[in-house]
Amino acid sequence: MPLGQKILADLRHLLGRENVLTVPEDIIPYSFDGTAAMRQMPGCVVFTTTTQQVSEILKFANADRRAVVTRGSGTGLSGGSLPSADCIVLCTVKMDKILELDRANLTLLAEPGVTTLTIADAASAANLFYPPDPGSMKISTIGGNVAENSGGLRGLKYGVTRNYVMGMEVVLPNGEVTFLGNKCVKDVAGYSLKDLFIGSEGTLGVITKVLLRLIPRPAAKKTMVATFAQMDQAAEAVSAIIAAQIIPCTLEFLDRMTIHCVEDYAKIGLPLDCEALLLMETDGHPAVVADEAARMEKCCRDCGCLEVRVAKDDAEANKLASARRSAFSALARVAPTTILEDATVPRSELATMIRFVAAVAKKHQLRIGTFGHMGDGNLHPTFLTDERNHEEMLRVEEAFKEIFAEAIRLGGTITGEHGIGLAKKSFLPAFLGDAQMRVLRELRKTLDPNGILNPGKMFD
Ligand SMILES: Cc1cc2nc3c(=O)[nH]c(=O)nc-3n(C[C@H](O)[C@H](O)[C@H](O)COP(=O)(O)OP(=O)(O)OC[C@H]3O[C@@H](n4cnc5c(N)ncnc54)[C@H](O)[C@@H]3O)c2cc1C
Question: What is the DSSP letter of 254?
């Protein structure tokens, strides 16, 4: 049902006219997120600046049984912040302050709309480190990162967003405000509700503050790139590095298609005469870094790599890392529609999975670029397609079904970091099974009995 004048007037009164968008030209940019081929116009878009405002909006919405879709920067890749028809999009980007950096407890308290990069920079300015670094970190918000439990290039050694969330303020669907967690390193009082909200994709509450754990900054870092004539050799090198008990902070991979697209786009000077490229970074004590870098180079050479290039300085290291960071944007330039997935398998199954993805692309005659967090077993097969070509889109759909089925068969998962949202909703029941689906439904119903928060996402 379209939004009535009364609720719009209430929203304008609460937030100011400039923070309530209703004109189609203004709300079109909020009718999609980073996910391809999904669009839906909302009823309105509102910008909040305080927790109190969020609480009032949820009270209005709950009374009106009105859907609310929380949105950070809209970079999500599973349709999580895609509006539902006539909903209120509650955008947090104006809640963008770092509220506290506590050097005694090594924590940082931020509003949800602060970008990930701003958090990392604030930590760095205090000679501390916030490791999670999604490829989108220049624009993604910390609220979105927590709601998706985002990973990043440093996930292999440092873990994902969950490993750094000590607490959060949330507004529940009935407007109640509560703080989950605290600054204590140890706390086992009751169920860990903060952990329930991490990765909840905007379906259980609106996160209005995030308390993050910071760690000491590594003293040294070395970045290197190895190239391989065969994909299998790169996968074997990753297995050899892990088997040698080296846990680099970054172990990323690009296939031939991605390398060429990145080079066309970013002109980094990447070697083009190879099938696969590994970007490797080790950090920590200088002596350990030197030792690990030498051993990783040996692992790559033992697996028959073509070349290992070690960055001479920070500038070159940043340039090489940007090759991986720009992979998605570079692939997105070459086709009207880029559909990126994040099938994930145990690391021992990487070579099998990479071969399978290539075979599926060939079988369905689809163009594909694959890159990803090789050290985590988290691949991003990316189909380069055109959503206007209905027949090709059906083949893409079929290909993804086969890829997810294979990931599950190999003991993997349907999403390593991008979440379920709308994009992978149909795969979740088979992956989790009846008992887990029932528990998820009951939890959601308890917290949001009227089903106003992000309806239709993750599961019905
Ligand atoms: C180029 C590119 C690279 C990427 N690289 C990575 C990567 O390396 N690793 C990775 O994990 N992801 C990656 N992503 C995906 C995406 O950036 C992350 O999921 C990110 O965390 C989304 O943040 P956002 O602010 O854009 O959230 P949005 O897309 O706006 O929202 C994502 C979800 O979070 C919910 N949400 C947002 N804010 C709140 C809040 N305050 N309270 C409750 N729910 C909320 C929304 O309802 C939605 O379900 C990438 C995306 C792009 C486009």
Answer: E
- Give 10-residue mean pLDDT values along the chain (460 residues): 86 96 96 91 97 97 95 97 96 98 98 98 98 94 98 94 98 98 96 97 98 97 95 89 93 92 88 92 96 96 94 89 85 89 88 91 93 89 92 94 94 94 94 96 97 96
Instruction: Give CA torsion, residues 11, 13, 16, 21, to 10 deg.
Output: 30
Whether ligand 1 lies within 6 angstroms of the CB of 412 is answered as no
DSSP 453: B
> What six digits make up the tokens of 144?
């979105």
Longest alpha-carbon distance in the chain: 70
* CB 407, CB 352: distance < 8 Å: no
| Tokens 């000077």, residue located | 269
Distance CA 421, CA 426 (A): 10
User: How far is 252 from 24, CA to CA, in rounded Å?
Assistant: 41
What DSSP string describes 125-150? HTTEE-----TTTTT-BHHHHHHHT-
How far apart are the CA of 457 and the centre of ligand 1, in A?
14
For ligand 1, whether the C-beta of 150 sits within 6 Å is: yes
Does ligand 1 lie within 6 Å of residue 341's CB atom?
Answer: no
Residue 96 CA: distances (Å) to CA of 56, 129, 140, 390: 19, 20, 12, 41
In 3D space, the residue among 312, 437, 452 whose CA is nearest the CA of residue 7 turns out to be 452
Q: What does the alpha-carbon distance between residue 396 and residue 400 come to, in Å, rounded to a whole number?
A: 6
- The rounded Å distance from CA 115 to ligand 1 centre is 11
Q: Identify the pLDDT of residue 267.
A: 87
369 lines ligand 1 (CB under 6 A): no
Instruction: Please give the sequence-ordered ranges of beta strands (E in DSSP) within 256-366, or none if there are none.
Output: 276-284, 307-310, 337-340
CA Rg, the chain, in Å? 22
What tokens appear for 182 in the block? Answer: 């605290």
Sheet holding 88-91, edge to edge: 20-21, 44-47, 88-91, 68-71
State the distance from the centre of ligand 1 to the C-alpha of 99, rounded, in angstroms.
21
Q: Residue 82: CB partners within 8 Å, gap ≥ 6?
A: 31, 32, 33, 35, 38, 39, 40, 69, 421, 422
CA 83 to centroid of ligand 1, rounded, Å: 14
92 CA: nearest ligand 1 atom: 41
Q: What is the rounded distance in angstroms from the CA atom of residue 381 to the CA atom of residue 359? A: 12
Ligand 1 binding pocket includes 107 (Cβ within 6 Å): no
What letter does residue 413 receive in the DSSP assignment? B
Q: Would you call 341 helix, strand, or coil by DSSP?
A: coil
Would you tell me how many other CB atoms lie within 10 Å of the CB of residue 2? 9
- In angstroms, the CA 390 to CA 374 distance is 32
- Determine the angle formed by the axes of helices 350-363 and 231-243, rounding to 10 degrees: 160
